[in-house]
Amino acid sequence: MLTSRTSPDQILDAAHRAEIKGRSLWRDAMTRFARNRAALVSLIVLMLVFVFAIFGGYISPHQPDYVDFMLRGNIKELGVPSLENGHYFGLEKEGRDLYTRVVQGTRISIMVGVIGSLVAVVVGTLYGAISGYFGGKVDSIMMRIVDILIAIPFMFVIILLLVIFGRSMIMLFVGIGLMSWLNMARIARGQTLTIKNKEYVEAAIASGVKPIVIILRHIVPNLAGIVVVYATLLVPELIITESFISFLGLGVQEPMTSLGALISDGASQLNYGTTWMLIFPLFFFLITLYAFFFVGDGLRDALDPKDR
Amino acid sequence: MAQPLLSVRDLRVTFDVPRPGAWPWTPPRKLHAVGGVSFDVMPGECLGVVGESGSGKSTVARAVIGLAPISAGSVQFDGQEIAGLTAAQRRPFGKDIQMVFQDPLAALDPRMTVGDIIAEPLVTHHPDLPRPEVRKRVQDMMERVGLLPNLINRYPHEFSGGQCQRIGIARALVVRPRLLICDEPVSALDVSVQAQVVNLLMELQRDLGLSMIFIAHDLSVVKHISDRITVMYLGRMMEEAESGTLIRHPSHPYTRALISAVPVPDPRLEKARPRMVIQGELPSPLAPPSGCVFRTRCPIAREACARDIPAKVDRGGGHMVACPFHADALAAMPLAV
To answer: ipTM of this complex > 0.90?
Structure first.
């Protein structure tokens, strides 16, 4: 562009049009989030837990379904956590390596939480946004459906599902997915009601933008803040739910495991003095939950600074 | 005489207000926001609409653009009836009628960049336009309204109120509409910025040959920009005239009271001139007074005013007054210093 023939006018014009990058609200929120110590530390912890869940299995010489018959006879004395024989967290009650079991359990628990939460985000947000945006009869019908579903004790439904259709991972996901989006839909709908009366939405309507485009372009991005916060807080809730079901013995089945199942096993062995069987899964369970809660809190503060 | 671009006849807008604690099937109360308003906007003309808060000025604008439901009456744009169309049928008219909103920041989506905001009407009505062309038109428009085109990737919260209103104007004009509705575009701005925005609007109107409906409660601003002025009160039109005529020879008692309330920036003049203060509050639009809606606060009201809705009296030159006793108002409400 800038050849020797360029006039000062053209240079000015080019400078005029060179675009400056703006700071979006998301960027602002991320800066605020980074200033929140507890949230930042929790985020790092959470990432470490993720790394542990995904790659943790590679640093162990054992397989999660391998029963160490050499040590199985005397777990209380031979199965204690040790670095020498590669059982970092010791053995669990069947003589399998607890470390790899915890890795597997953490992976499954986080998967349940994250997938359930994703279902809630996608289904709940769209459902709530559509219901709130169209209002009137559509809104009444859609929200009454949610009310009816919410009135059913969902733990009962999940247990029934697992009993009737057999205990499988898929059924567990279906059960958790069925209930997780209901509250999200309500939250998204309530927020949509305030957003749809904003002048920028009216400007879009007056310009002739189609309703579905308005929902996707204006409503959903402005819902995103509250949805992200709720989704982060939903993950630990779902992990607890799954753990409870597994604790009852209905959830994840052998040879798979989850943190809830491991905690249940560990608790049942407490009488024999093998406390490590409870402590290790419980530790990962708790730090994951706390980290998720703190990150969710931090996101809420960062995305909605006016409320603090 | 040329064909009016926008012709509104006996426009009525009523809202349903549910009674608190009522059964779903009890009929709701009717709020008469606009009760029979008629006006024309000629091509290239600017019509000013003034009135106090709650007089229905904004509702008229929102009804014309399709944001408020039209209960009765006709709205013709360029000879085509647009009242009673469905939302989908109305969409093509978004290219020809655009609106500038009152709150400059609230009218811009906080999650979108300025470039995307201004481009929205353009990509809605010309979906096939290539992206570089959209960008170029947006930047041209930004320059036109006095914004640096390199700010295209910024977000609304990074701008001042006056700049936000310029963005709003750019968004409205990027599709080259024929009618621009300005709903109190300057009442949220500082006085100095108000002048800039009003001058910008006048300049754009002249250059682009726009027709405009300019709504404000500040009579001096409206006088500056409008060719004709309509005075509204409680959803009815009180008086309509050329702006010079209306300011110099106001005939309706309400208009006279409004003009007498405009402050004069000279303490001696301000003290000396007669002041008409109208008493009381705006009556509820849920139960508007019978006959003339202004009679409850009118200094020259008489029994006849409660009986029937006053017909519009033509005082010549398109000066319409909705008061049969306007001759008495001249005597009873002196304005001259």
So the answer is: no
